[in-house]
Amino acid sequence: MQETRFIHIAQQYKAVFFDSYGVLKNYKGLIEGAQATLNHLRDREISIRVLTNDASRSQEQQADSFARLGLSGIHPDEIVTSGMMAKHFLEQKIREGKIAYLGTENSAQYILQSGLEHIAVRDIDLEDLDAISAFVFLDDEGFDWNIDISKTVNILRRKVIPVIVANSDRVYPVSRNDVSIATGGIAELVENMLNKKFIHFGKPDSQMFIYAFDQLNRSVTVAKEDILMVGDTLHTDILGGNRFGLDTILVLSGNTRKESAANLIESTGIIPDYICPSIAL
Length: 281
Ligand SMILES: [Mg+2]
Known about the structure:
- By secondary structure, this protein is α/β, with parallel strands linked by helices.
- The protein has two domains: 2-53 and 203-276, HAD superfamily/HAD-like (Rossmann fold), CATH 3.40.50; 84-200, HAD superfamily/HAD-like (Rossmann fold).
- Helix content is 37%, strand content 21%.
- It contains ten helices and 16 strands.
- The strands form four sheets. Strands 1-16-15-14-2-5-6 form a seven-stranded parallel β-sheet, sandwiched between helices. A five-stranded parallel β-sheet has the order 8-7-9-10-13. A two-stranded antiparallel ribbon has the order 3-4.
- Helix 6 crosses helix 7.
- The longest helix is centred in the middle third of the chain and has 14 residues, at 145-158.
- It is globular, with a radius of gyration of 19 Å.
- It starts with a strand and ends in a 5-residue tail after the last strand.
- The site of magnesium ion has 8 residues, from loops.
């Protein structure tokens, strides 16, 4: 593991998988130099995919949001979200009843458009849970934290149903020093209280890597050793990439701060192949 410039490493690969938040963009907007790096990779015909633990927006909405920030040339098909994986799972496995959810109406419409009815936790009558057939943690917004998290605990105490976590991130950065609790963090809190295990989607689990790898290999032939995974978070991006058998590079432009990177790597045992300050050329 050595600290180096991003592009020197990236140009040795046939494909680069980027995490989104903390890598391509952050709370301030685009990461400086993101467009130049993307152009550089495109010029060398290096394939790009964006793998994001985000269940709040569709691929098209994600691509639009990159474009609005000023990053052009990312196609919706190049974006893989944990929400897509959760959506697919629900379509395959939940055939009847109503799907209860914690999150925004937008995320519910995107993830839960499988023909089944969905219902926000706030609208659920605790005395009438018969029709509820699954529960989904979708997003950290769109509900009352005081009321609806307790209500969630009560629903899941009363009813034994599959519980899906559509984004397993625990926290996300909101400023240089601070984070906000993400969906995965809320779900873990409830799991611990109920002593239950939910079904988690998103990195570090391999579903998104498998999807991106298979989809990529429909247009070009790329082996795992030809792919570099770029991420700012050890226990999602780097762990997931390492487990899937990809080379990994930790960028210090997001969740992992330069001052604590070495300690974190040592204490977690999650070791990236490379470290660099950001994806800037
Ligand atoms: Mg990130």
